[in-house]
């Protein structure tokens, strides 16, 4: 398995292990890479991400073009959740949006006062 994060590109680092007596020996710094399923354009994809990218993904619910899959209770499935995230416009919603564009905006509608 390649030790490279598919989001930030963090990979193996090289350096020295320094003892108390200042003796230097070569060592490798490996990133903590984990496999994780995320959504990319509404499709479930398996990625290899470093733990700092996973933390950012869990905090913000998205990371660049990737979205976090939240596993729900038994009554809702992951497909229903993906359908909510990736909404496809229906014929009725397109017609309603076109009607809204045709109407003029009034200050009362924006402010909320009558």
UniProtKB/TrEMBL annotation:
<protein>
    <recommendedName>
        <fullName>Large ribosomal subunit protein bL28</fullName>
    </recommendedName>
</protein>
<dbReference type="InterPro" id="IPR034704">
    <property type="entry name" value="Ribosomal_bL28/bL31-like_sf"/>
</dbReference>
<keyword id="KW-0689">Ribosomal protein</keyword>
<dbReference type="InterPro" id="IPR037147">
    <property type="entry name" value="Ribosomal_bL28_sf"/>
</dbReference>
<dbReference type="GO" id="GO:0003735">
    <property type="term" value="F:structural constituent of ribosome"/>
</dbReference>
<dbReference type="InterPro" id="IPR001383">
    <property type="entry name" value="Ribosomal_bL28_bact-type"/>
</dbReference>
<dbReference type="GO" id="GO:1990904">
    <property type="term" value="C:ribonucleoprotein complex"/>
</dbReference>
<dbReference type="InterPro" id="IPR050096">
    <property type="entry name" value="Bacterial_rp_bL28"/>
</dbReference>
<dbReference type="GO" id="GO:0006412">
    <property type="term" value="P:translation"/>
</dbReference>
<keyword id="KW-0687">Ribonucleoprotein</keyword>
<dbReference type="InterPro" id="IPR026569">
    <property type="entry name" value="Ribosomal_bL28"/>
</dbReference>
<dbReference type="GO" id="GO:0005840">
    <property type="term" value="C:ribosome"/>
</dbReference>
<comment type="similarity">
    <text>Belongs to the bacterial ribosomal protein bL28 family.</text>
</comment>
<dbReference type="Pfam" id="PF00830">
    <property type="entry name" value="Ribosomal_L28"/>
</dbReference>
């Amino acid at each position: 398995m390649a030790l490279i994060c598919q989001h930030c590109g963090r990979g193996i680092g090289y350096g020295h292990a320094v003892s108390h007596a200042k003796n230097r020996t070569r060592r490798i710094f490996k990133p903590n890479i984990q496999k994780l399923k995320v959504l990319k354009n509404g499709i479930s994809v398996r990625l290899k991400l470093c733990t700092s990218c996973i933390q950012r993904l869990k905090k913000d619910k998205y990371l660049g073009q990737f979205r976090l899959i939240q596993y729900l209770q038994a009554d809702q499935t992951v497909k229903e959740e993906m359908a909510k995230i990736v909404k496809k416009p229906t014929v009725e919603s397109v017609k309603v949006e076109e009607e809204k564009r045709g109407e003029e905006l009034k200050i009362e509608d924006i402010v909320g006062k009558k």
